[in-house]
Every structure is written in C-alpha cells, then in structure tokens.
Specification:
By secondary structure, this protein is mainly α. It contains 8 helices and 2 strands. A two-stranded antiparallel ribbon has the order 1-2. Strand 1 and strand 2 form a beta hairpin.
C-alpha cells in the first residue's frame, strides 16, 4: 500500500470511528433523556456534535502514545455520557436500556452497512469488492462490530456490565461496584494483560455475527 493509499485508509478509519462512536454516545444520552434523566442534556451531551463526545486524553493522546509504543494494543475511549440511574424509569432495567443503547447502535450500523453492501453488489458470495466503497463498507462493519462486542463484555465500566447488573445477585453487584470505582483504568489493565484472549473472543463473536448477516441476506 503506497503512502497516498495509506492516508486514504487512515482517513476512512478515523471517519468511521468518529461517526460510529458519536452515534454510540449520543444514543446513550437520548435513551437516558427518553427514560426521564436530563443529566446528559444539562451537560450538553444530548447532541450529535462529535466534539462534545471527545476526551482529549482517552480519545486522542492515549491512542497516539500506544501507536508509537511497539507491541502495545491500540486503546481509546470517547467521553462517557453521564446519567443518573436513580432518575431513569424502570430502575435497574432502565439503566440497562441506557447502557445497551450504545452497543446496539453500533450493531445496527454494521447490519445496515452489510445490507447496503449486498444490495449494491459490493458484497457477494465471493467476498467484498476491492474498491473504495468496498473498503468503506468493510471498515464500517468491522469497526462497529468491534465496538459492539467489546462494549458488551460484562466488565465494569463497560456497557455490558450495566446489563448484567440488572439481573445479577446482590453479591455480584457489590463486586461490580467495587471494580467500577476504578473506571477505565480497569479496562486499560485488562486490555494490556489479556489482549490476546480478548482479541480471540472478539474475533470469534464478530465472525459469528457476520455469518448471521450472511445467512439473513442469503449471500
């Protein structure tokens, strides 16, 4: 891949990530507001403006540092959308709906990208066309499925943990709350320590979802 192609590829990746994570965080905010909590709105997060969802360190600086560190996994986060679980309707189940709204948005984006690829003839039984459109569709699918699977891992403070919290026994809840106090540093440590295992889990789940899409669209 020559330099110009690399620049185009990087631009597409950054564009897909920015759009996908903006929608992910915005859907958390909109769901929270829909369920009665205006915390996100009061902090200006009820918006599709990506600038409002970017954290200078976790979104920009940290990925650059990791990219320049040999062997380090690329890791980043957008600014988490705040919400008050005590203010949303339906209690813990309402909080779970707020949490799952983000990952489900990524799942829907990936599904739509696959569907567009099939309907446009970019995706066939032979694979994905090696064109610019094919590249965009493939990256949109892989990035969003990656976000979906990773965020659904039941590890605090990821979204999947909030879903698990809704029906977990009290002892498990207390343990999850203790872990969540350390926030994103827990995820950072787990990614650094167990990166190969997490990567294998994600690849397996993503391949299973793509197989499901393939079956649904009869490709």
């Amino acid at each position: 891949m020559d330099i110009s192609a690399q620049i185009v590829h990087i631009g597409i990746v950054l564009g897909v990530i920015l759009l996908s994570m903006t929608l992910h965080e915005a859907m958390h905010a909109f769901m929270g507001y829909f369920l009665g909590d205006d915390t996100a709105k009061a902090q200006g997060r009820l918006t599709l403006n990506p600038i409002k969802h970017i954290d200078p360190f976790m979104t920009i600086l940290l990925p650059v540092i990791l990219a320049l560190t040999p062997g380090a996994p690329i890791f980043f986060f957008f600014l988490p959308v705040p919400f008050n679980p005590n203010r949303v309707r339906y209690g813990d189940w309402g909080a779970a709906l707020v949490a799952i709204a983000g990952p489900l948005t990524n799942f829907l984006i990936a599904f739509l990208a696959f569907g567009i690829g099939v309907l446009s003839g970019v995706i066939t039984s032979q694979g994905v066309e090696a064109t610019l459109v094919g590249q965009i569709i493939m990256l949109t699918m892989s990035v969003n499925l990656g976000f979906f699977v990773f965020n659904m891992l039941p590890i605090p403070p990821l979204d999947g943990s909030r879903v698990l919290y809704a029906f977990a026994p009290e002892a498990v809840r207390r343990g999850m709350e203790m872990i969540e106090r350390y926030g994103v540093m827990v995820i950072f440590a787990i990614v650094l320590i167990a990166s190969p295992v997490i990567s294998q889990i994600m690849i397996t789940c993503m391949n299973a979802i793509i197989s499901l899409f393939t079956a649904l669209f009869s490709v």
